[in-house]
Amino acid sequence: MTRADAPVTPPVVLTIAGSDSGGGAGIQADLKTIEAGGAFGTSAITSVTAQNTTGVQGSHLLPTDDIEAQIRAVREDFDVAAVKTGMLAVSDVIDLVVDETPLPNLVVDPVMVATSGDRLLEPEAEAAYEELIAEATLVTPNADEAEVLTDRTIDDPGDAEAAGRDVIEMGADAALVKGGHVPGDEVVDVLVTDDSVTTFRHDRVDTAATHGSGCTLSSAIATRLAHGDALDEAVAAGIDLLARAVRYNLDVGEGPGAVHHTVEVRNEAARHDTSEAVERAVAALVDRDVSPLVPEVGMTVAGATPYAETPDEVAAVEGRITRTMDGVRPNRGVRFGADGTVARFLLAAREHDPALRFAVNCRLTDAVEDALSDLAGTVSGYDPSERPADVTTEGTTTWGVGEAFEASEDSPVAVVDRGEVGVAGSVTLLGSDSETLVGRVETLLEAVES
């Protein structure tokens, strides 16, 4: 039997950049990010570098005729919807790209120095960037690169905005001045256009594994522009992806690792398996009849995708598991975003131990508290009545989980919430997989029943 083909037509993105033999940055990072974003990646390699997570050991610039041939080959055959530039190295290559303009949705990442500190742009080529910037839809310098381009010192978002305006005066439609190199607990990125300034804030991740961050961000933005997103939407999506890619970085190589270019698509792909794992756990608890552990408000089993950051990425029992005359049963099925309380608890716990993916809430009685000693692992807790005055009621869970983890040398297997006036106490069991979670529930139940 001959099957009919079923072709798809993704938008095409062209990256003009250097090759990173270590795979974390350059063309390799660009193509991974573009494909993960649902576009078709094409490339024109400007330089071949010998590098890894520890640094750049060598670099070979391709002849400009060869670079031009690559660009022409792509543009003659493909309907290119967006172009991003990375490592261009010398003024001749920058001039070559300028000669190819106009380029659709051109995102210019003015790569000058690698994350490792190795220089990737000849000093005399800095001035040549002005002509390319004048053709750009968006320019994405980090603070160090913006200082070179604008001759400003950038210490805060106000400085970044001023530098962005300078870049627009060079002719660019917009500038995104990135704040990753500016000290502070938050990373503040500033998007400047002719008529607006938008500030994006993310908590800083305590890691040195940022190799490929600039390449990944500019490629993600170019991909969203190729899909037809408005500029501010494309930038917001790219920044969100990078924040997650940095937190869940790839621990590869002997030096600092690389950002996780495909983190979002892998997280999305795990939704079905996560939901099924929660369903299996619910079925096991129903079969075992965990009535003695079910709180008055009901029990929830929750499971987070591997790289979950929001409640919408946590699957839980909708309507909770409740006691009946002949055991327990879930009121409804499992759905992402179904339960806020246990989902928030799980996400708060993952801030301290990202390996935790599953949680279940149990009632707190004297018998349950005594039985906690049967669990193989650390049990910690917190008292909501002791929360500081600046912690709101809504913020109690995040504060309390933080207190419990800080008081424990190891990641707790159970966290006790002592409750307060009008709110019953509870115990939340945690696990890295659903089988471990169910095992802990069964251990607790057996201790209570005995």
From TrEMBL:
Where does the record place the Pyridoxamine kinase/Phosphomethylpyrimidine kinase domain? 20-260
Record has Repressor as a keyword: no
Its EC number(s):
2.7.1.49, 2.7.4.7
> Which CDD domains does the UniProt entry name for this protein?
HMPP_kinase
Please provide one cellular component term from the Gene Ontology annotations of this protein: cytosol
Q: What protein name is recorded for this chain?
A: Bifunctional hydroxymethylpyrimidine kinase/phosphomethylpyrimidine kinase
Gene Ontology terms, MF aspect = ATP binding; hydroxymethylpyrimidine kinase activity; phosphomethylpyrimidine kinase activity
Keyword Aminoacyl-tRNA synthetase annotated = no
Domain (Thiamine-phosphate synthase ThiN) ranges: 278-441
A Pfam family per the record? ThiN
Q: Which UniProt keywords apply?
A: ATP-binding, Kinase, Nucleotide-binding, Transferase
Q: Which NCBIfam families match?
A: HMP-P_kinase
What are its GO biological-process terms?
A: thiamine biosynthetic process
Q: InterPro entries, alphabetically? A: Aldolase_II/adducin_N_sf, HMP/HMP-P_kinase_dom, PM/HMP-P_kinase-1, Ribokinase-like, ThiN
Gene designation: thiD
Lineage, please?
Archaea, Methanobacteriati, Methanobacteriota, Stenosarchaea group, Halobacteria
The signal peptide here is none
